[in-house]
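From the thread on structure requests for the teaching lab: each student submitted one protein with a one-line request. Submission from student K.M.:

"Model Glycoside hydrolase from Mucilaginibacter pankratovii, tokens only."
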Amino acid sequence: MMKKLLTTTALAIVIITACFAADITGKWTGKIMDQYDIAYDFKVDGEKLTGSTTGPEGNVINIENGVIKGDDLSFSIKFMDNTMKITGKVKDDTITLTMPGMNGGEPMNVVLKKAK
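Reply posted by the TA:
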């Protein structure tokens, strides 16, 4: 009986924790390679992540297939006829995104901070 109660309690905690995705709704900014400004405008609805970023020419690039579960997020953007898969991690007031490297090189990390 006690084992069943502990198992049920542990399962409930896991489910409750998974249901609370970080609310990153709003504008976030950072730099790519410490040189190029980047900004994202995120919208969270449950585990669905939508929003946009601005390309180098000032064009709006929409986030596609966005998901946020707990502190983990992932989404795709179409950039220069390529679809780029981006993953990330939320910690406090920081989002660290990992995106594919240029021309198949090492992945790049970009640190975003909530815009004021």
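TA comment: The two ends are 52 Å apart (CA to CA). Confidence is low (pLDDT under 50) at residues 9-19.
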